[in-house]
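Spend some time on this chain, tokens included, and walk me through the fold:

. . .
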Amino acid sequence: KKILEEKGIKVSGELYPRDWNPSYKEWKEVFEKNPISEETILIGHSAGCAFILRWISETKRRVQKIILVAPYILKTKEFPLFNPLTDFKIGNEIEKYCNEIVTIYSKNDYYFILQSVKFLRSAIEARFIEYLKAGHFCTSNGFKEFPELLDEILR
């Protein structure tokens, strides 16, 4: 965040309410306080990816790029509280609302994340970047810096 702000790029790092039991409506209220334009790059992590894809699908707002990190986009029985975020249809119409979609994932992430990636490969046109041992891209996985994400933003 600091590096982007030093380059004059506005960054929103809003905290979303009840991230353990997300409400699309509540997240949308927080999210839409941000200015979104055709120059905007949206970055989602895990369930945030489902939120971004659903929001784009519903609002049909055009952005520059969408970056999905460890995407959680399919309903699972393990985390039923997250299922309402995924309550929308993903299709290639998403591509009409951005110049590029990038999906970043790790081969040693949770199986339902890998299932989401597999689904995305068949549903949308995107560039996929695979890591071998980044887990869920969290500090609890030992993941502390993400210079490749910075490169994707500045690309």
Notes: The first strand starts at residue 41 and ends at 45.
